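Try it yourself: sequence plus iron/sulfur cluster, in.
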Amino acid sequence: MLEKSISQAVEKGEMLPLMEEFYTIQGEGSHTGKAAYFIRVGGCDVGCHWCDVKESWDPEKHPPTAVDAIVANAAKYSKTIVVTGGEPLTWDMGPLTTGLKNEGMQVHIETSGAYPLSGTWDWICLSPKKMKMPLPEVYEAAHELKVIVFNRHDFAFAKAEAEKVSSNCKLYLQPEWSVREKMIPMITEFVMDNPEWHVSLQTHKYLNIP
Ligand code: SF4
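Structure, out:
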């Protein structure tokens, strides 16, 4: 159990359960290839069976960390910050994004959209999950829709999700890593038939970087 003062700070977003932070290359989506500092926040109850960061799910396993310290670390490395998880919107992202923006950073989020949108973002990558669907406000605000393709049913899901985002939202299909060899031919065929969509690959995994 967390001390009351710590749990109150977590509740206000002044502390966050920090799983890891690292400087790397964004491997996915619109900003592929860009150097970025990743802040991975613990806590997610969406429950994707193919999730490759299941160790992020339980927030109690990750130390509550003051956002000031997170911002100070990030400022040493990059002007582009990617906040990911876990599901970052489990928490109030206001204090973290205010701190990052005060340092002049471009602040991106990767979210399932399952929780209310908090914080101020330069780029919102919405990756919807069938188990816990996004809230309408996140569809409206998304700059990028990234649908993970695990099986052929995900193409119909992707089309339905594209109906819910704004007309200038970029559309990406990304094969789930463990089934990529099977799904890539289907994705490439789909994108050639539906050129408003783009292929996203987890290029950081091909590059062998975090
Ligand atoms: S939303 Fe993301 S972190 Fe949560 S279970 Fe799904 S893939 Fe994992």
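One thing you can check immediately is this: Residues 180-193 form the longest helix (14 residues).
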